[in-house]
Task: inverse folding
């Protein structure tokens, strides 16, 4: 009986070690994924210190989502929706100048590279720098 318990302890210790390794690998992956983000870029955030905006990335994302409120396709998307209107979905604020985002009409989707400027009056200007629309192969 003691041998069985010792074997169980050894197995559980091995499981814990494996789980700790998995957690560490995932933490490193998260850090790598966050590398290009405004939230983790002190040099880029310094551009907004004087504006007293608590969360510049959220503020900019919200302003970008407001462009979806226009009737029809989002004006930053240079394509006409085929199933419905193209609207911006996911947003990643890369730094104090650029955003990458995806858009969709529910069936077709693509991505945009957007240049933005957060001005002193807290207005935001957006300019589409590049775009792509994925083709569907049915």
Result:
């Amino acid at each position: 009986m003691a041998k069985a318990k010792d074997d169980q302890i050894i197995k559980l210790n091995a499981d814990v070690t494996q789980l700790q390794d998995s957690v560490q690998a995932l933490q490193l992956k998260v850090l790598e994924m966050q590398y290009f983000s405004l939230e983790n870029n002190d040099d880029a955030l310094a551009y907004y210190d004087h504006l007293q905006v608590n969360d510049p990335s959220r503020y900019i994302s919200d302003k970008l989502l407001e462009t979806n409120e226009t009737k029809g396709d989002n004006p930053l998307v240079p394509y006409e929706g085929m199933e419905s209107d193209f609207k911006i979905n996911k947003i990643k604020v890369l730094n104090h100048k650029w955003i990458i985002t995806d858009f969709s009409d529910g069936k077709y989707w693509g991505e945009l590279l957007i240049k933005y400027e957060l001005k002193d009056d807290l207005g935001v200007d957006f300019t589409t720098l590049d775009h792509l629309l994925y083709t569907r192969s049915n």
The first strand starts at residue 87 and ends at 93. Residues 38 and 95 are 4 Å apart (CA to CA).
